[in-house]
Amino acid sequence: MAELPDLHQPVMTIAHRNMVTLDEDYTVQQALDYIRSHGFGEKIVYFYVVNKENQLKGVILTRSLLTSPLEQNISEVMINRLITIPHNATILQAYDMLSHHKLLALPVVDQRQHILGVVDVSIFMDENYIKDLTQRRKERTEIQRLHARLRSILDHMRELVLSFSYLEDFDKDSINDFSFFDDHLVEINSSALSFYEVPASYILHKKISAFDLIHELDRDKVLAHYKGLFEKGFSETTYRIVTQRGQIKWVSDYGRVEYMKTGRVRRINHIIEDITVRKKALDELQASEEKYRRIFELSKDMIYIFNPNGQLIDINPAGIQLLELNSKEEATQRNIAAFHVDPEAGKSLIKEILEKGEVTKDRLLFQNVKGDKFEIGLNIIAQRDDTERAVSYQAIAHNITEAVRQKEMEAISQLAGCFADDLASPLSVIMMGVEAFKTLLPGIEELTEKLSGPDERKGLEEIINEIKFQVSDANYSLIEITVAVEDVRQRLKEIRDQYWNLKKVSDGSGGIIYQRATKQS
């Protein structure tokens, strides 16, 4: 069997030219005489009626020609409603027409209705031909089914879909406005109503242009986006639209080109998504991030971020200054563990962070790159991803060295006040004893002078008793002074040996405490 022609080839490749054409002025008798004289064979089914210019005017069935009066004109018995196929149609299209209209033959005509040939249904009777045609029909049916499904999907999409067809040649450099794209719009889904508050049919039938609903400030950007797709192949941009009721929406417009095998642009499809809510959230997030960044940069406390391994990721200017670093770049080359004075305390801190996700330390001993030590108050919190896995940690460290020093001074001042209160009592006793001696000494001196006078014998016993009394008082005061002096001495020794011997020691978790050490004798 000869190789079957491609079903997409022109129909004239299978059309035969031995058709019977009859002049429209013939009578039935003249037509029969013409047929008998030419002997066209047995397969003739239809007789085609033409005018003087060989233009097809009608068709006569064999039965009609045989049963009509001989003197009747054939133009009166012919079928005027013609079913033809153009000469530039394909073989597959011819087969579809024969099947659809249930015809045995189909005339092929040119643009002026000149009959060029006939396609006989018998050519398709070959088993392989029928199988091929059946397969093609199944494929086309499947394509139609998929198209219907695609149409349903498009109409149920929340995104807006615009499709532009560019089968003919055009000069993209001549595109000056959106009217070019309006002329090439071939598809828009039903989401147009929710996007623009305009039915899709209004836009598709050019009652209103979708491009008229673009915000005035964004029109130039959108035009550049649509024109640029011819070169880029795909592109995305965001812009504002204004609905029929005046509502402003933000949309994301993604366009992609479909190419022919020749490389020419066949179609460009746009998927447009309403991002108004997302844009608002992103704007708020950006504003929040900018606010955080200002706090981060301007804070006088050290703020730093590090990964689970302790490697610094970011640090603010106050932190760079506190750690005596030269730059943020230098900081990101270091591990935060290097700044802990007590390595064990640093390990304990990391362990606690991993267990709890956040840590607060009132006092922690740090050191800068020069080895200078300082105390900080520290707050650390974990930053987690969607799986709740800690990906980094943010810390705020407040330098409390000066505040601690002030508290120490206040504590020492209070301690000194307590010691002063304790010493006040024995010192008062000493001062009272001294005053008593000042009072007693003149009296004793006066009594001594009486003894050395001319009448020293007079009242001798009385003077002696007076002196004994004064000496007794002096002795009592001396005892009190001695006890008070010993009390002061012991208290001063206690201050020297205990209260002033304070040491800073680790509390075992990164902080420090003051320990009073008693001097060993």
Written account of the structure:
- Helix content is 44%, strand content 23%.
- With 521 residues, it is an alpha+beta fold.
- The strands form five sheets. Strands 8-7-11-10-9 form a five-stranded antiparallel beta sheet, sandwiched between helices.
- The longest helix has 51 residues, at 401-451.
Oligomer: single chain
CATH architecture descriptor name of the largest domain: 2-Layer Sandwich
Taking the sheet with the most strands, its summary is: 5 strands, antiparallel
Number of helices: 15
Q: Compute the number of structural domains.
A: 4
- Strand-residue fraction? 15-25%
Please estimate the helix content: 40-55%
Number of strands: 18
CATH superfamily of the largest domain: PAS domain
Structural class category? alpha+beta
What's the overall average pLDDT, rounded?
A: 81
Shape: rod-shaped
